[in-house]
Target: Methyltransferase type 12
Amino acid sequence: MLLDLALWLATPAPWRHRRLGYVRESVLLSGRARRCRRAWAPHAARSREAVLAACADLPLRRAAVVLGSGPLADVPLSQLAAGFERVLLVDAVHPLGARLAARRFPNVRLVTADLAGADDPVGALCGGADLTVSANLLTQLPVVPMDRHEARGLAEPERLGARIVADHLAALGRLPGRVCLVTDTAQREEDRAGRVTGRLDLLFGVRLPPSPLAWDWELAPFGEAARHRRLIHSVRAYPDWGAAGGGSSLS
Model:
């Protein structure tokens, strides 16, 4: 608790992002990442592999943009910095560890942006990029806007989560360069006997095309969220989102 408070105070962020709750979410995510480092390691490694697969046959490597760069555990930063003339890391909050890592590379720049805001900056930031990566970001985008409505006691706009998810996918689909999408799609809760005790659609009814890569991510091992329950997320990765169909449907 004290460490989380210290990180909340020490993490640089615009006051608006702090007020909206982005710093709080970043600190909570960093805390869980520390506690679950071993369980998260395979997911982070496969996410990095998907990004590198997206780079493999790119004819031009002038600029790469990573949306949702966060703490960089799932981003192969050193390879991107070595392979591209410039790299932009974009997120609402850049944790201290990510800031220190980015300083090692003169061609890496941090950009602070609210990717779930009304003025979606994806087109402006990524329009000239040869590679855009949406790094485990898609299902995080609705979290703060939905929490904000709940905290204020306001009625949530109809299908708010689905609209935010669909808008991000549409923005990615309009980009002229290569797009790599890595995202979790569904959550299942299991007990110690392996029985599924709950399910949650993380995309709010938005359906993705078949993916060339998929795996499970143990988000919360036994004892993290509950003593006898664990949370597992299904993950899909598209090294070339456009080639995979680059679209979505709403059920």
